[in-house]
Structures are given as C-alpha cells and as structure tokens.
Amino acid sequence: MSDWVKKVEAEAKGLLAEAEEELTVLEGVDTIDPLADDDPAPEEGTKPTSD
Predict the structure, then answer these.
(1) Which helix (H) or strand (E) holds 13?
(2) Tens digit of each residue's pLDDT (9 = 90 or more) over 27-44
(3) What is the DSSP letter of 36?
(4) N vs C: which end of the chain shows fewer Cβ within 10 Å?
(5) pLDDT band for position 24 (50/70/90)?
C-alpha cells in the first residue's frame, strides 16, 4: 500500500506543478475588459480633430 500512496502523491504533485505553470502563463496574458469603451479616450494633451 505504501507504493500506491507514493504513486498518488507523485501524480498529485505533477498535477499541481502543471496547474501552477498554466496559471503563471495566464498571468502574463493581456486581458480584455468587457466593460471598457470600444473607442478609447484620446490621450491627454491632444486635441480632437474636426475638419
């Protein structure tokens, strides 16, 4: 039974390592804000152009 417990522990550690790696990758991804305006506001100091 000791071998079975060691195998389960090793599998669990492997799954945790994969999950942590995936989260690390996802943390670096730019997110999309669904509540943000479609047209971003003009940068400060710029004047709107109306010809």
Answers:
(1) helix 2-27
(2) 776 666 666 666 656 666
(3) S
(4) C
(5) confident
